[in-house]
Amino acid sequence: MNTDPIADYLTRVRNAIKANHRVVEIPASNLKKEITKVLFDKGYIANFKFEENGPQGTIKVALKYHPVTKIPAIRTLERISKPGLRKYAGAETMPRVLNGLGIAILSTSKGVMTDKEARQQNIGGEVLCYVY
């Protein structure tokens, strides 16, 4: 039993990047699938694949590295809202990550999205993590 599956997801990706792995396998959930789609849309991961094996299924994430320098596209993954202390942001108080160069992933009433998309739609939500 994992108390914080989102932190586990981010830690698995962080560890795979530190070990220079190409692919990382993560137990699936609907929220993790949505976070993976956001990371893919914003260009932080190369590709992903959802596999329906067993009761839960897995997510295979292909990590993205610079072709010449081998520097990972994701430099930092930081969990913000934790089970012990939830962090929420309104449309006006939306955080800016690295002055707009990074993204904050939010869970809103309209689904999982970035801080920029939430600001455009004028909605707030729970700040899940920062990526840059």
Automatic annotation (TrEMBL):
<keyword id="KW-0689">Ribosomal protein</keyword>
<dbReference type="GO" id="GO:0005840">
    <property type="term" value="C:ribosome"/>
</dbReference>
<dbReference type="Pfam" id="PF00410">
    <property type="entry name" value="Ribosomal_S8"/>
</dbReference>
<dbReference type="GO" id="GO:0003735">
    <property type="term" value="F:structural constituent of ribosome"/>
</dbReference>
<dbReference type="InterPro" id="IPR047863">
    <property type="entry name" value="Ribosomal_uS8_CS"/>
</dbReference>
<keyword id="KW-0687">Ribonucleoprotein</keyword>
<dbReference type="GO" id="GO:0019843">
    <property type="term" value="F:rRNA binding"/>
</dbReference>
<comment type="function">
    <text>One of the primary rRNA binding proteins, it binds directly to 16S rRNA central domain where it helps coordinate assembly of the platform of the 30S subunit.</text>
</comment>
<protein>
    <recommendedName>
        <fullName>Small ribosomal subunit protein uS8</fullName>
    </recommendedName>
</protein>
<comment type="subunit">
    <text>Part of the 30S ribosomal subunit. Contacts proteins S5 and S12.</text>
</comment>
<dbReference type="GO" id="GO:1990904">
    <property type="term" value="C:ribonucleoprotein complex"/>
</dbReference>
<keyword id="KW-0694">RNA-binding</keyword>
<dbReference type="InterPro" id="IPR035987">
    <property type="entry name" value="Ribosomal_uS8_sf"/>
</dbReference>
<comment type="similarity">
    <text>Belongs to the universal ribosomal protein uS8 family.</text>
</comment>
<dbReference type="GO" id="GO:0005737">
    <property type="term" value="C:cytoplasm"/>
</dbReference>
<dbReference type="InterPro" id="IPR000630">
    <property type="entry name" value="Ribosomal_uS8"/>
</dbReference>
<dbReference type="GO" id="GO:0006412">
    <property type="term" value="P:translation"/>
</dbReference>
<keyword id="KW-0699">rRNA-binding</keyword>
